[in-house]
Amino acid sequence: MTVSRHGGGARERSYWLDDPANVTKLYRGVWVAGLLLVAADFVLHRHDDLAFAETIGFYALYGFVACVSLVLAAKLLRRCVKRPEDYYDH
Amino acid sequence: MIIDLPPGLLLLGAGLLAPLVPVRMRAAFLLLAPAAEFVQLLSLAPGMTLRSEVFGFALEWVRVDRLSLAFGYIFAIAALLNVIFAWHLRSRLEPSAAMVYAGAAMAAVFAGDLLTLFLYWELTAVAAVLVIWARGSERAFRAGFRYIVVQLASGMLLAAGAALRYAETGSLAFGAIGLDQAGGVLLLLAFGVKCAFPFLHNWLQDAYPEATVTGTVVLSAFTTKLGIYALARSFPGTEMLIWIGTAMAAFPIFYAVIENDLRRVLAYSMNNQLGFMVVGVGLGTEMSLNGTVAHAFADILFKGLLFMSMGAVLFRTGTVNGTNLGGLYKSMPWTAGFCIIGAASISAFPLFSGFVTKSLIMTATAADGRLLEWLILLFASAGVFHHAGIKIPYFAFFAHDAGIRCKEAPANMLIAMGLAAALCVGIGVFPGLFYSILPFAVAYEPYTASHVVAQLQLLVFSALAFAVLMRTGIYPQELRSVNLDFDWLYRRAAFCAVQRATTFTSGCIHRLGAILSHAAAWMLAQGERRTSAGQFMADGGSTRGMALWVMVMLVSYLVLYYI
User: Fold this and answer.
1) What ipTM score was computed for the predicted complex, to two decimals?
2) Which of A3, A49, A62 shows the shortest C-beta gap to B317?
3) How far apart are CA B47 and CA B71, in angstroms?
4) Residue B541 contacts A, CB cutoff 8 Å
5) What's the domain count of chain A?
């Protein structure tokens, strides 16, 4: 194992993602991609196995709401099930 | 047509002989076995069999059909990838046990009767626990012990189910079984343990992350997929499985979100993928069963790939905890890239394997008119992307830079990951070719504009949800903790109950002993007092009295004798 802890010295090469401004660019890019995909619904008239899933932006909304509620529910779950790391070590 | 050599025996034999092979040649020797096995499988055709009679039981050692062949192919591929990934190992035990494990799983897939199945079922359990114990730590030993207890219980259920079934029907055939008789119920439970049904699932999250860097990759391929195979063989169209599978797909993802050990996150995510496969079995249509087989095939590859990438991280940095990692893409760019391919595959991005396999199950669910189940599975699909697709690569390779600088993964690991990644992409890009090995003919086109846009919407907005929660600080931090799951019942509650019962019983025994010894001491004291000089026992009594009592005894004896 060859591991070294690195404080981020000047001689190390800097990466594109190191700059928070670039991360924000990426984040906005994903929003643009998402909105374009929803816009595609207006043009495409998607066909689906279930009629209600053909509603414009159904999958976008469902994906977003599902993940936010997943995380919020998981936070609640953590309150009930979280124990110290050595809980099972007698 | 008759087969000379049952599939799987080549792997088994190679595994048993491997410890005798010199260490330099051992990996090459082990690589030959799955390669040869794969060639053998290509020569097999549906309908081939190997039967014999043993102790009056008609046994079918080998039964080849399209279902067993599909699982056979992927088990051989997995065994091959595992050897490459573990090429650097010098120990005797782990590679050898891993190969025996793969061979036993493959032989079980080709078993045509329940007795043969039982034999290999138990062998997979024993070989797998050796793989877990190869880690050599106290934690691994304990987890392995719990693992083997659960697996042997599954074997016992299988044996009891098979015996009951023999009594009920006079046949040991391993075919469609159903739940109308008691034997079938026991068999479903036996298979359910291996498939990690809800409440029978914790052995998976408990044991797999405790194995070695390479061991977890090996474990992820076989046991659960063998369970899925057995379920698809014996219980297609069992309606109960639709709900069981839906629950499996949904509930582990909540745990995956808050788990810190990234290999344990993957174990929860595996539980969730198994749920989709179980739903496919429960629906029991040609399309859904194709979906189950296809998804099991794809899952072995992308889950193996994800476990490999996390294994490589563990190998290089000594940890896979989300709390300690971050920024590793700088040190391990190739591993990060392969991990992202695995993540895209499990999340079912277009052009990756999950997209063409999971959609078979989703479409079959919708076609069956099961709206609620479909919505829950869609929720689980979004959740998969969230916890496996994003969380795994994000916390290991991106997030905040933890400052770890290490070497890229060794070449053998990169080759294994590269091959697995190529297969994931290959399945996604050429679904027609892949569909041709499924049990039934496929009349489904995954790449329609509607399907691609719908899936991309789901995924991109799941990613946006993650990003928004991260940027607003709502996303739960990675914490070092144990999260209680169902295994609390046997790891803590049952343990405490036994401990209390033992304390109580030993307390009772202690008190009883004290009372008895008090009583004995009192009696001794009494005896001593009575026999001391001047007391009743010491003065001897009279001879007349004694003669009188002897006479009374003799007379009563005489009277009793005449009655």
Assistant:
1) 0.88
2) A3
3) 16
4) no
5) 1
